[in-house]
Each structure stands twice: as structure tokens, then as C-alpha cells.
Design goal:
The chain is built from six helices and five strands. It is globular and about 60 Å long. Helix 2 links the parallel strand 1 and strand 2. With about 200 residues, it is α/β, with parallel strands linked by helices. A five-stranded parallel β-sheet has the order 2-1-3-4-5, with helices on both faces.
């Protein structure tokens, strides 16, 4: 007889596997198109920016690191930055301008046409992400939102909304990271040549 703990663990993973399969069937085209957007930005000299709150902030940092350092293969770095990591900027912006401006302020300072901003959110309702999306549009920066639970108002403010069909915050974040890895793998396979080589 299985222990309840074993059943709980299996249920979580089985639900995640079912959701991953659904995303593969229904969203692979959108994911590939997003990878093309990233390829175009990097080849054109642009950079990738990532932001989010809480667990989504961790995902933003994780994915920025994959581009700057490596994902699967040795190569030159790709230009990427997480807007969630500079505590001095974050706390100064929150203190002086309000927490809703912590990402938008950095977008205004750092973003240039040709860049891509990734916004990670399970609800699509966080005011600091809505403001960041508006700032990116004003800066002529393309925007991609990784969303769930219908996408919220953020889905209307971005160029591309990847909405995972789930109301589970945990599974949404797990799939967002998998989507981010899939995009990074496509980009790396297309742009990386010899280890340490040019792209």
C-alpha cells in the first residue's frame, strides 16, 4: 500500500507531466515564434531583459544566467540581464518612486529598440510588470509575457503572451521555466558554433 506522501508526490508530478504535454501540443508554435524573436534580437545586437516577482523573479534570474553563461554548450555569452538583482536600484526605486516602478525605471534606463523584455507572472496583474510593459512599449522594445490563469491585464500590453493553461501557481512557474529553457536551447543551437566561437 502506497503511503499518502508517495501518492502526493506522484500526483504533483503526474499533473505537471499532463500539463507539459498539453503545452507541447498547443503552444509549441508560439514558443518557436518567441525563439525567433529572441534570435532576431541577439543577432541584431540587442539584449534580453527579464523580470518578475517572487518565484517568477527567481525564474527571471535563472534564465538570464542561462543566456549569459551557458545552457547546454560552451559558447560566447549572449547579452541578457535580470532586472530583479540590483538591490540598490530596486530599493531606491521602491523607496523614492513606489514599488510599481522598480522594473519600469530600469527599462527606461537600459532598454533600446531591438531589445526584448520578458515578463514572468502567474496572474498578469502585478502593477510593476504592467508599468514595465508600458515603459518597454514607449522605448520600442518588444515584450514577451509568460503567464497563466488567463493572462490578466498584462496579456493586452505585450507583443507576445505565452499563457499556460492552468490555475496552479506552482505548475505555471514550473512550465514557465521549461518554456524558457526550450527557447534558450533553440537559440543556443542556432547561434553557438564551435566552443568559444563567434555567432
Amino acid at each position: 500500500m502506497k503511503s499518502p506522501l508517495v501518492s502526493d508526490a506522484a500526483t504533483h508530478l503526474e499533473e505537471l507531466a499532463a500539463l507539459a504535454g498539453r503545452v507541447a501540443r498547443e503552444m509549441a508554435g508560439e514558443i518557436a515564434e518567441t525563439a525567433e524573436l529572441v534570435l532576431h534580437a541577439l543577432v541584431g545586437g540587442g539584449k534580453l531583459m527579464f523580470c518578475g516577482n517572487g518565484g517568477s523573479a527567481a525564474d527571471a534570474q535563472h534564465l538570464a544566467a542561462e543566456y549569459v553563461v551557458r545552457f547546454r554548450r560552451a559558447r560566447l555569452p549572449f547579452s541578457a540581464i535580470a532586472l530583479t538583482t540590483d538591490t540598490s536600484v530596486l530599493t531606491a526605486a521602491a523607496n523614492d518612486l513606489g514599488f510599481e516602478q522598480v522594473f519600469a525605471r530600469q527599462v527606461r534606463a537600459l532598454a533600446r529598440p531591438g531589445d526584448v523584455l520578458f515578463l514572468h507572472s502567474t496572474s498578469g496583474e502585478s502593477r510593476n510588470l504592467l508599468e514595465a510593459a508600458r515603459a518597454a512599449a514607449a522605448a520600442e522594445v518588444r515584450t514577451v509575457a509568460l503567464l497563466a490563469r488567463g493572462g490578466g491585464p498584462l496579456r493586452e500590453l505585450v507583443d507576445r503572451a505565452l499563457i499556460v493553461p492552468t490555475d496552479s501557481v506552482a505548475h505555471a512557474q514550473e512550465i514557465h521555466l521549461a518554456i524558457g529553457h526550450a527557447i534558450c536551447e533553440i537559440v543556443e543551437s542556432r547561434l553557438a558554433t564551435e566552443p568559444g566561437g563567434e555567432y
